[in-house]
Amino acid sequence: MSGIGILGGTFDPVHLGHLRAAEEVREAEALDEVRFVPAAVPPHKQARTLVAAEHRRRMLELAIAGVPGFSVSGIELERPGPSYSVDTLRALRAELGDAARIVFVIGRDAFAEFDSWKEHATIFALCDVVVVTRPPALAPLAHEEIPLAAREAFWYDPSSGAFRHRSGHVLKLQPITALDISAASIRARLATGRSIRFLVPPAVEQYIAAQGLYRQEDASR
Predict the structure, then answer these.
(1) pLDDT of residue 196
(2) Sheet holding 170-174, edge to edge
(3) Could you tell me the CATH number of the domain that includes residue 109?
(4) Residues of the chain with pLDDT under 70
(5) How far is CA 175 from CA 80, 131, 156, in A?
(6) Euclidean distance between CA atoms 121 and 114, whole angstroms
(7) Before 136, cis peptide (omega within 30)?
(8) In Å, what is the CA distance from 16 to each residue of 44, 119, 135, 157?
(9) Is 205 inside a domain boundary?
(10) Are 64 and 19 in contact (CB under 8 A)?
(11) pLDDT value of residue 221
(12) What digits encode the pLDDT tens for the residues 33-72?
């Protein structure tokens, strides 16, 4: 194996849970690179105002500075309109060619809502999909968890423990180290003046403080 991993999200802010998940998928899938893709206009997270895109991108750059195999892609920040993953994956497929292996990384909580994503059945035909666990780790991925529109295109391969798509791509579950960290809890801590040390990289902690992000007056955001 080899290839390019894609880990999207708002990263508001990026934290150690994101980084550890990316590292464990990179290692398990023998990926050449994992690209972190911050969303400009996330279709499923419009209930609150995000910190400005330039801050979220800069925090990612600081978080992975000097880390081999990690990079930040601004593809969704530079594209107008909602940040649909299927559009990003199409663009990446056009960039890398049909022979390249692309691995789309998604949390299990997000995968539970995958049927609401734009052209979600098409995503399975564009790339491999790795679903990562969050604590508490649940049971193995079941066939019934695959969105109905795509379910008939998959069959289970007991030799690999993965689902195979008729396109040749795979869908699998990747258990990761149980770090119960969320961006929401970090924002809540910052809004009430509590420490976020050891929840985010030191450079990200310093940037948040220097820029005055997630202060009490921003607690509703």
Answers:
(1) 98
(2) 70-72, 33-38, 4-9, 102-107, 128-132, 170-174, 162-165, 154-157
(3) 3.40.50.620
(4) 1, 45-48, 135-138, 216-221
(5) 34, 8, 18
(6) 9
(7) yes
(8) 23, 30, 14, 32
(9) no
(10) yes
(11) 43
(12) 999 999 998 887 655 689 999 999 999 999 999 999 999 9
Domain that holds residue 17: 4-181
Contacts of 167 (CB under 8 A, 6+ apart): 124, 125, 153
Is residue 27 situated within a structural domain?
Answer: yes
DSSP letter assigned to residue 65 = T
Residue 191 lies in a domain: no
Count of structural domains, the chain = 1
The 10 Å Cβ neighbour count of residue 94 is 9
**Structural domain includes residue 8:** yes
Which residues are within 8 A (CB) of 56 and not within 5 positions of it... i.e. 6 or more apart?
A: 10, 11, 12, 13, 14, 38, 50
